[in-house]
Amino acid sequence: MDDIAAFIRRLPKAELHLHLEGAITPATLVELSQRHDRQPLTLTEAGAVYRFTDFSGFLDAFKAVTSRLITPADYELAAWRMAQRLAEQGVVHAEVYISVGVIYLWRNHDPECFEPIFAGLEAARLRAERELGLSLYWIFDAVRHFTIEEAARVFRKAAAMLPQFPAIIGIGLGGDERRCGSEPFRDLYAEAKAAGLHLTNHAGETTPPEAIREALAIGSERIGHALSAIADPDLLNDLRDRRIPLELNPTSNVRTGVCPSWDDHPLRHYFDSGLLVTLNSDDPAFFGSDLESEYMLAHTRQGFTRDELRQLASNSLQASFLPESAKARWLAQIESAR
Prior knowledge:
By secondary structure, the chain is an alpha/beta fold.
């Protein structure tokens, strides 16, 4: 087991479905609480924030953590701690969701609130590149169960900032799928694509396969979760034939109760069916399983061999939005990893 763990750590990997806010550990939450709370949280109290039993409980916990991200320095701290942990796991590239929609909502839609926050994020990104050899891209995430106007504010901010900050690589739709699908955002997705942004989308996590079809219909290039695709063989064939990358998050799905267990997760079926699947941690601090652990669980719970783990790592780089030259460099290193 130690040998396979070392092999997993040596594999150059990309993390493609990771929420900055969901990477804030209890220890970091304590640091933030010490900055802002009259009675700072103890580590035990911080740990209790992360306990939940279903998807709605997860959303409540997420709010409790993000409410303590207040200053640009807070965001810089969160991003730097995240980068350190990624590098320790052998992650060489990450494309990280920022809940820009939540930031705007909690700051009373102040149009000037985001640039200082983003400066903190960029400081952490540049430090990670310089000190850790880790590349980071940002994906501006809107909350689908807020209004269309609020999503427009998020996506248009990404488009406006892109010329100055090329690390802003795309946009996404998170939030509660049960309350709003993808179709209402069709025009905004077309606008974002025209601005040069990549299009990602959470779909099929808590909703049937039709939600994934709807996400594809508005132009989504990558699908997060895609759990319910297993129920639609025709959709699986379409995903395979079109080489649509799937950002799978098994432990997340188990912890939120949308999948009964790791053994029941469709990762193995998707992989064996030839789909372009990637492993991701989603919100590692909340779910207790980082990317390294997801690879190990794929090995122990679903029998992924070394070569298959190597293929998952290759998939993660192939599905990334990195330039082809960077992909080729990392893919060569994956092939030589032993």
